[in-house]
Write a structure and sequence with these properties.
By secondary structure, the protein is mainly alpha-helical. It has two domains: about 60 residues, Arc Repressor Mutant, subunit A; about 140 residues, Four Helix Bundle (Hemerythrin (Met), subunit A) (Up-down Bundle), CATH 1.20.120.530. A hairpin with a 3-residue loop joins strand 2 and strand 3. The longest helix has 24 residues.
C-alpha cells in the first residue's frame, strides 16, 4: 500500500503512513488506536509505531490518554481560523526565504511540483494532490533552512490537510487550489522572494475563505 525510500527510518515511515491514514480519515476522529494492531497493519515494530504516535500527538493529530490508549483527535472547525493567523505569517516568511536560498536542484523540484499539482487537479486526484501538498511543504521547509519555522509549520500542516480532506468536496475548488499552490512553487523556483510571499498570502487567503465557507455551512 505504501512505499518508503530506503533512507527513511522506521519511525519516519510509520509517522508518514499513520499521518496519511488520519488525514484522509481512514482513521476517523475519536478512533481508539492500538499500537499492536497498527504495528501489524503497517508491518513495522511497536517501538517505531509508539514513537510515531508520540510525534503525531505533538502535531495535534492524536491524543495520548494515560492508561486509556491513543485517540485520534477531533476536528474543531473554528480552530482552523486561529491556526491560519499563524500560518499566514510563518508561511510568508518561509516562502520568501525559500526563494532566496533554494539551490538549483531545489528550484527544479519546485517547478516539477507545480506541474504535478496541475496534473493532479486535471485528474481530480485528491490523494495525489494531498501528497503533493505535503511534498511542497517539506521542500519549502528544506529550502528555507530555518529549523524554528519548520517546527512551527510541522504542528499545523497535518491538521490543515485533514481539515481540507474532510470538507473539500463540499466547499473546495480543486483547480483553484492547485493553481495557487503551483503559483507559489513557480515563484520560489524563479527565486522571486516578493512574488513568493505574495503567492503565499494568496494561497492562505483562499484557504481561509474555504474554512469560512465550511463553518458557515
Amino acid at each position: 500500500m505504501f512505499a518508503a525510500a530506503p533512507s527513511v527510518s522506521l519511525t519516519e515511515r510509520a509517522y508518514r503512513q499513520l499521518e496519511e491514514l488520519i488525514v484522509t480519515l481512514a482513521l476517523p476522529p475519536k478512533t481508539v488506536l492500538s499500537e499492536q494492531l497498527l504495528s501489524q497493519q503497517l508491518n513495522i515494530g511497536r517501538t517505531p509505531v509508539r514513537e510515531a504516535l508520540q510525534q503525531l500527538a505533538r502535531d495535534g493529530l492524536v491524543t495520548i490518554l494515560p492508561r486509556r490508549g491513543v485517540l485520534v483527535s477531533d476536528i474543531n472547525l473554528r480552530t482552523q481560523l486561529r491556526l491560519l493567523e499563524l500560518r499566514r505569517e510563518v508561511e510568508r516568511l518561509m516562502a520568501r526565504v525559500a526563494a532566496e536560498r533554494s539551490t538549483p536542484a531545489e528550484a527544479a523540484a519546485f517547478r516539477q511540483l507545480a506541474t504535478d499539482m496541475r496534473h493532479a487537479s486535471d485528474a481530480a486526484d485528491d490523494i495525489a494532490f494531498m501528497r503533493l501538498d505535503r511534498e511542497l511543504n517539506a521542500l519549502i521547509s528544506q529550502a528555507a533552512r530555518n529549523e524554528f519555522a519548520t517546527r512551527s509549520m510541522g504542528l499545523m500542516h497535518g491538521l490543515s490537510r485533514r481539515f481540507w480532506y474532510q470538507h473539500y468536496r463540499e466547499a473546495a475548488d480543486l483547480p483553484l487550489a492547485a493553481s495557487l499552490h503551483a503559483a507559489l512553487a513557480d515563484a520560489i523556483a524563479r527565486r522571486d522572494g516578493a512574488g513568493a510571499a505574495n503567492a503565499s498570502d494568496a494561497l492562505i487567503s483562499y484557504i481561509e475563505s474555504f474554512a469560512r465557507k465550511t463553518i458557515d455551512s
